[in-house]
Structure formats: structure tokens, C-alpha cells
Amino acid sequence: MREYHGFTGCxxxxxxxxxxxxxxxxxxxTPEQNVAxxxxxxxxxxxxSEHDIYTDHRAQFNTEDFIILPGLEATAVLYRAIGTNExxxxxxxxxxxxxxxxxxxxxxxTFSHLQYLPPIKFFGQWEGxxxxxxxxxxxxxxxxxxxxxHPVWSRVLDEEFMDTTGVTALEVFNYNSTNEAAVGSGxxxxxRMLRAGKRINGFASDDNHNExxxxxxxxxxxxxQAESLTHDAIVENFIKGNYYSSAGPxxxxxxxxxxxxxxDCSKVERVNFVxxxxxxxxxxxxGELRKDTLTHAEHTLKGHESYVRxxxxxxxxxxxxxxxxxxxxx
Length: 330
What we know:
Structural class: alpha+beta
Strand content: 25-35%
Order of helices and strands: EEHEEHEEEHEEHEEHHEEHEEEEEEEEE
Distance between the termini: 6 Å
Number of domains: 2
């Protein structure tokens, strides 16, 4: 079979958070405080994705070693009934400002700073799949890259979001929702989509509000490999899937060669090779229990797998995730 490279190998890794809230919506930190927080922890880029409010802070915060990705978190919500605030289900979908080419070709033009996008509201019942597609189409029409966020926290059914077209990535780890009520993982939903033949990346994020109830900042991020720390370079490589997601470990390189999938990473306890699409596909390599000793692992493929992705897990349970490689067999 052909050789596959998990990363392009061009450029450096840049660390960033795509999901963040400030006092402009329901966060407790000002944009200035939020940026300072992430710069202090070695981040290179940040999207302040306010609820239903598009922000573009580039002129204020961009420097040679830190950039802002403009964006927002758009909403469609199902309320129990008119006159109540009880939310049964909702879609939260990011619109992150796309590449220069995407902006130029945006049918509806790009959003402006502090532009409000009213939530799509339903009462009693909704057409969930239709609402998700409506949000995706609208965000793309304004030149944005679209992500689907925290499906477990949102209480949505698979059929209410999985067939949405135009979505680049699924939020597979949300640090806030994980610490709030153990509803921050989207890994099961990700594999269901991949097993169904959909091509979609995953990403980890914070969704920080900094309310002080629990830790929700600097716990989930992505590292994008790019030629430079510029808007187009980061966004283009995010779209390509040329990055990994993490809640702790580092991934240095990975790929498929001579029928084996391999990975190089920081010291971890175990490496999970997750593959589709037949029972018993994939495998796990465990080093020494409760010790981080593995820095390299390999798994021999069977010759029919449709995709493979890798997750590395340290002794504290913190993980890092690659995006999928889609396999073609002779």
C-alpha cells in the first residue's frame, strides 16, 4: 500500500484555542484579560467565539507571535415551551473567519465586528437536522469555516447533526463541559461519522468562561502545523487537518508505512489505534501501567481498514488525538 503522512512536515506547530468566551457574551474575563491568559500559557492563536456575536479583535491584539482568529458561536435552540428558559436541545456551531479566498468568494460578504446573529428558536419541537444545515449554510455564505461543538452537552441525537454538510471539524474534547458534568467528549460521535464514511476532523478546545466554578481554561487545544503564524496559514492547515488536538501529551509525527500505522509522541502510558470499519479493527499498545514510558508505537493494519486515527494517553488520563488518515488499499 502507499505511504501516508499524518502531517505535511512543513513549518512549525502553533498552539491555539478555538472556543472561548469573554464579557462580550457570557464569560467573566474581558477580551484583554482573556488574551493575556492565553499568551501567558504559550498560546499562539485564539478565537473569541462569543455566543451569537461575531468579534474581530485582530487590530487590537495581533502581534508577531500571537494572532486572533475572528469568529462566533452561532445557535439554534429548542425550548420546552414558549415562555420558558428550559432548553431541551441546541446546536452550537462555530463560524471562524475563513481564508482570504473564502472571504473574497463569500456570497453574503463577511461579518463585521460585534455583528449580532439572532439564534434560531424553536418551542416544543424542532427540525434539528434542518436547523443545523441552516446554520452551516449561513456561516459558510459569510466566508466562515464551520465546526460543530459539544454534541453530548447539547443533547442532540445523531440524526439531528451528523449529516450536516459543510462542517470541517467536530469538537471531540471540550474542557469546560468535561469538568462541568462529564459531557465534553464527542469521540463516540466522531467515530460514528467516520464509520459512516464521512470525512471530518476533530478538535479539542476549552470553551472557557472563567466563572471560577471549576477549571475551564488552558485544558484543551490544537497544535496546527503551518509555514507561518498568519491567518491564512493557520486556517488553511486547520481545514486540511494538518494538526493534532490535545489535553496534555504532544504528538511529533505519525503516519502509515509498509502496512503499519506508527506514531512518535511525548511520554505516555498507552497508544490507541482506532480504525474502521470491521469488528476488532484497531488495537492498543500499553507500555507500563501507571507510568509514562512510550514515545513510539506501531500497529499492523489488516488490509481493509477504511480509516485510522491515533490517540495517546498519559498516566493521568490526559489524551492527544490525531485526525484520521483515510486508507486506500490495492
